[in-house]
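Duplicate of #3305? Posting structure anyway:
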């Protein structure tokens, strides 16, 4: 079996090259080729000797990203559809904003969380993605932006899947994203979002200085369990306990996402419950008006309701914003990713 080098963090590349009897700096060279220069084959790696390149070609593979479709939104957002080697597909979304460009990446094909309002949950779980497949989304977007003299500045694990249910491969990718020999991003520019896999939330945040986002979506256990089955395993008390424990680097807040569903979780009483639940935790709350898709029949509340909800939180001394609908016209907004699967 040829060895896949794409997806290996620097430590793994070092072990690989040392086992092959190569010098240690070869790993750094390779890491730069893969994650900074976005190389897809060995032939262009001109600082490696020809025999060495031939040897690599014989024993190793470098899987290239296979983007089948680019969909552009009127607001500049782009959605990419990737075909994986076994025929499965996933999507990522590139979101340009003032002063930063964010890529929202998928970590699983489908998702096992089955949150009632999410299109990815509706298609169910297919499989975990490999580190190579996850990182290739970043490689593809990085290369595309580089051609426009732009840089990818932020990565959010908010695409398809539950990143903490694919802990090992996601951890390898985070190592690559943070490494000086990889994408060299600051931890605060990498956000891992979770539906609330409590034990792994803590271990990940102890291991890496990344930002954590929690999809809260309800502040009462009965309602949250109905909307998000994971709540039966890790109820609010445990989730909020973990949010208190997550090591907070100076000035860093835990992001909280809250999808607003009309008549379900959008009342002023719900807002007061959120404020009470999160009291004393440094959080930044993103209110996301429900984005419609073909898999469910929830409805988004009107803007005025979203604003009133936000104001209750602000009056309680919290940082809260209502998120705009980026990429809604190309089904690239939160909760709309289904990679072309139909209901
Ligand atoms: N599984 C992880 C990563 C996905 S993030 C997690 O749950 O955090 C995707 C975000 O979009 C989550 O915060 C989710 O609550 C939100 N979301 C899902 N469906 C949505 C929809 N239809 N409209 C708006 N937001 C939605």
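Output from current build:
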């Amino acid at each position: 079996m040829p060895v896949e080098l794409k997806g290996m963090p620097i430590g793994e590349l070092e072990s690989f090259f040392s086992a092959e009897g190569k010098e240690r700096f070869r790993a750094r060279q390779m890491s730069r080729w893969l994650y900074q220069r976005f190389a897809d084959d060995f032939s262009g790696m001109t600082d490696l000797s020809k025999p060495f390149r031939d040897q690599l070609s014989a024993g190793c593979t470098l899987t290239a990203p296979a983007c089948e479709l680019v969909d552009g939104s009127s607001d500049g957002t782009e959605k990419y559809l990737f075909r994986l080697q076994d025929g499965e597909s996933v999507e990522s979304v590139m979101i340009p904003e003032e002063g930063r460009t964010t890529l929202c990446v998928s970590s699983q094909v489908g998702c096992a969380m089955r949150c009632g309002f999410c299109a990815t949950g509706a298609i169910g779980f297919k499989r975990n993605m490999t580190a190579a497949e996850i990182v290739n989304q970043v490689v593809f977007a990085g290369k595309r932006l580089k051609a426009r003299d732009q840089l990818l500045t932020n990565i959010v694990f908010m695409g398809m899947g539950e990143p903490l249910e694919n802990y090992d491969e996601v951890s390898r990718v985070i190592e690559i994203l943070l490494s000086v020999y990889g994408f060299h991003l600051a931890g605060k520019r990498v956000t891992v979002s979770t539906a609330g896999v409590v034990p792994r939330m803590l271990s990940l945040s102890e291991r890496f200085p990344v930002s954590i986002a929690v999809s809260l979506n309800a502040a009462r256990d009965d309602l949250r369990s109905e909307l998000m089955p994971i709540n039966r395993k890790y109820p609010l008390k445990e989730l909020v306990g973990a949010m208190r424990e997550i090591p907070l680097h100076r000035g860093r807040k835990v992001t909280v996402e809250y999808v607003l569903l009309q008549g379900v979780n959008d009342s002023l009483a719900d807002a007061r419950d959120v404020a009470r639940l999160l009291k004393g935790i440094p959080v930044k709350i993103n209110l996301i008006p429900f984005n419609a898709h073909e898999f469910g029949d929830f409805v988004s509340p009107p803007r005025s309701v979203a604003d009133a909800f936000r104001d209750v939180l602000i009056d309680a001394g919290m940082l809260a914003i209502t998120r705009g609908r980026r990429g809604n016209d190309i089904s690239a907004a939160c909760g709309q990713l289904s990679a072309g699967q139909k209901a």
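Confirmed duplicate; merging threads. Residues 108 and 268 are 35 Å apart (CA to CA). The chain has a mean pLDDT of 95.
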